[in-house]
Specification:
Layout lengths: L1 H40 L4 H68 L3 H24 L7
Helix pairs in contact: 2-3
Organism: Chionoecetes opilio (Atlantic snow crab)
GO molecular function: tubulin binding
GO biological process, one term: cilium assembly
């Protein structure tokens, strides 16, 4: 039984090999005819150029798909980073505001006891400049106010 199967497979292999040779010969003949016709029409190499363009197009499509995936991945990372920054900012905002109040109170106490008018005026300008800087920083935070 195995010998019969082996014999059948060898016969089928011979037939398939011969069919392949015939088809390759026909392909070469048709390609020669196509080249001759293109030369007669004045468009030599058109089919080769068309084949190349199809290959380039399929390569471009695969590159575009990879690029799109990369952009989606980067977008996800940026969104995650923005979320973490906002989370940390909201956690630190009350602490910073408390520290600012303590600093301003400290300046006011020191200026009321020992400073001259010029020193007090300078401290007042410093405090208000500091308040304006903090306000400006709060306004400039992306996504939380006008610029």
């Amino acid at each position: 039984m195995k010998r019969a199967e082996l014999s059948d497979l060898r016969a089928e292999y011979g037939i398939l090999s011969r069919t392949e040779e015939i088809l390759k010969a026909k392909d070469a003949h048709l390609l020669g005819q196509l080249n001759t016709m293109e030369a007669q029409m004045g468009v030599s190499g058109f089919h080769e150029t068309q084949d190349t363009m199809e290959k380039v197009s399929s390569l471009k499509a695969s590159v575009d798909a990879r690029k799109g995936q990369s952009l989606e991945d980067m977008s996800g990372m940026v969104m995650e980073l923005n979320r973490k920054v906002a989370e940390r900012k909201s956690h630190l905002a009350p602490i910073i505001k408390g520290e600012i109040v303590l600093i301003i109170t400290s300046f006011r106490i020191e200026s009321a006891d020992t400073w001259t008018y010029g020193d007090t005026l300078g401290a007042w300008h410093s405090i208000h400049h500091y308040d304006l800087c903090i306000l400006w920083c709060q306004v400039r935070v992306p996504g939380e106010g006008a610029r």
